[in-house]
């Protein structure tokens, strides 16, 4: 989910003209008639929200007549959508900027733009530090891209890092980048109003705001009609989604939104990320249970298993409260898989407190986790209030212990699936062989199985699991969808 490797845009982005829904108009109309002969290249880092934002940016550029390219050497505009979540994420981007520098030197006139969280965090400083950068745009400023490109073409630097309280890009139809044609992201909200002490996101993404529910349903419907079979509803904290219908004054909660999207079609799978343990409600859990097409999988980041550390992290729940939430999920949906995000070596964490994190992994029986060591981010509450006092060596050792245990727990979790039959949505060829398909079950586990005649990506089928590693299940087809 969090990516330090870039995803590049595809050349073969399909321009689909059969759009419907008035709340959801197409910002790319101009591109359908004529291009401007220019190409853009975009790399994305960080969370799914950033990848989703790159699709908005691509749509805006496409509306200006730009075409996507996978080859940065032929690009007139090179963009990098950046992440600030950990120091390493920013270092990766700085290294990429050195590469873009070389391209620019061999091809004068190429514009380089930094988008996303690092642009927002560093603002004009980025232009001072990185002389080759022409454009700096924060996450809420993408509509301004065409204007800023024009400024940069005139030889000035273009910058907009204004954070909005309203922008949700609700009316922009994302141009699906590097898509498998089966699953797509739908952004349902932006920003975050929580103040987890370690986290830079509230500073880079601004205040929380929810997108028009009807535009979300229209986007899901449009995707389904174009052959997509899975959508992931995205937000930093999806359970606090709240949108008020301006005509009726009726509020729409996350549980209600889930239901609205689930009703688009029974063959459209719904996933969502991320859930904050403090906000996920029974109503959401019962809605998930009620609809077969809402996947039985919840990403429920714990961060730490120790109540004192959780308090310092300002997560607003303690270990017991979290464990009760986990029990509630398994009680309502015994077949639900839960995954987590975990931070090792937060300020002042003792060995005993670290042991609490290890035990929460076992008690929660996570199917998988994203695991990190603490990286202090300038300006955050933790950076201002607490000393980053755990030596790097200790952080790394604790992280290794966490990874080792999670790998074991995942392996046990997967072994329990041997002998069971799952409904699988086929995503494409497996990594290793074009004789095999890969697809996911409802619990978000990847299953690899031999191909059979008549089956294609986007089809559902039933697969019986025969073998498991800590990362993948293998099986045999039992019946086609
Ligand atoms: N909104 C999501 C998380 C977004 S950031 C949530 O609340 O769960 C993704 C993950 O990065 C976090 O869950 C956390 O585990 C990790 N992370 C955030 N800030 C970090 C930091 N300063 N150091 C290390 N990991 C961090
Ligand atoms: Fe960061 Fe916390 Fe918001 Fe997640 S909920 S984005 S960790 S501040
Ligand atoms: Fe990174 Fe920004 Fe996402 S900091 S994790 S890209 S919200």
Overview of the structural elements:
By secondary structure, the chain is an alpha/beta fold. It has four domains: about 1-20 and about 170-290, Transcription Regulator spoIIAA, CATH 3.30.750; about 25-160, Rossmann fold (3-Layer(aba) Sandwich), CATH 3.40.50; about 295-415, Transcription Regulator spoIIAA; about 420-480, Nucleic acid-binding proteins (OB fold (Dihydrolipoamide Acetyltransferase, E2P)), CATH 2.40.50. It has 15 helices and 22 strands. Strands 1, 2, 3, 4, 5, 6 and 7 form a seven-stranded mixed beta sheet that branches. Strands 18-19-20-22-21 form a five-stranded mixed barrel. The protein is globular. Bound molecules: S-adenosyl-L-homocysteine (SAH), iron/sulfur cluster and FE3-S4 cluster. FE3-S4 cluster (F3S) binds near residues 117, 200 and 205.
